[in-house]
């Protein structure tokens, strides 16, 4: 594979973009990685029309055929791994450690997983029911079955932090269920998604089943959301954008799957393993520069161990060198853009102005180029401060003290978000009890590890719906009930 296509992918064909092209910039070097197509709103609508035209054929294809096609996509992702990883790294600014282990390989695993899931029965057996005669129908023993049916055309709007991985988490289960898709990647790093379209083409995915439109503005995504040919929106991104999508999609009763913002609370009790807690919380800095919605960005610490944990976190930050993501020694790479770096810095300054103290970091790293922010720890934070309420999406952790369990739960639940929280305690029974009180879609007890068979999604403003594992098949299907006389 050579340079990624500079055209969009519609109905199995490569099409010149109506709006020309725009530059994609490497966040570490500020150099141009390549140029991406600027599709028009009309072309986004054409992509949706192509997906609708392809739907009946793909939905009626045998599960074995869909499985085989998804398997070929996984095989080709593996084949082109060495070509994809440098592109993913350059576009996202991820460290090579993250780019090589958490980007392409995870996408491969997801396509392989849903190639297997495609073979599963879509029927849910139900016991027959004895029904008395009514004016509507004679009585009798009535049989029934519930069938998972594809939703139709799914618009997959993906984020900039893990473009290929997130794409795979949407597209693979959607295709496995018999849906067709239009992919609209984030404007910051779309080239790897265009490369994915080349893989789709080579894999022999039927024309129109997968379409890709790219653009630097909001027009293409808005056109997909508004298109009468789109039946479902699958979006990962900010709560603000998700709210606008929800308002527009709701007018036409489109299905929605929304993975939105997070402000993860890590509750650390007095009996916790503080080294384990510090390591988990420090992952906010060490993993993709904090650009992850599940990060434990709020450390809620029992007052009796507050100072000890802060000391450990300061020490942890010292082992997170910032710099060139191509160097093996680098732990913290750049943020995706200058505007995102500036937003993080402005939020930190706002927190300091409100009375928070910078325990570590807080200053822009002295590097000649790149959109870098230093691992930052803010102490003396109170629940009402903006730094305790708003998502940074960067390498910043805030520390809040609490005195008892009820206060910890109140603080943890005291934001509009509810995506992923954590509880650290030597008493796992208490940790479980506290977990059940948290208004959060996911809770980790003494770990920040994920179990990818669990349903993933958020409470409150963190999202709508659940995916991952077998739950993703439910997310991309409608339930149809079929009954008959016994």
TrEMBL record:
InterPro entries, per the entry: Ald_DH/histidinol_DH, Ald_DH_C, Ald_DH_CS_CYS, Ald_DH_N, Aldehyde_DH_dom
Keywords: Oxidoreductase
Pfam family, one: Aldedh
Aldehyde dehydrogenase domain ranges (all copies): 14-482
GO molecular function (one): oxidoreductase activity, acting on the aldehyde or oxo group of donors, NAD or NADP as acceptor
Family the entry assigns: Belongs to the aldehyde dehydrogenase family.
Protein name according to UniProt: Aldehyde Dehydrogenase
Lineage: Bacteria, Bacillati, Actinomycetota, Actinomycetes, Frankiales
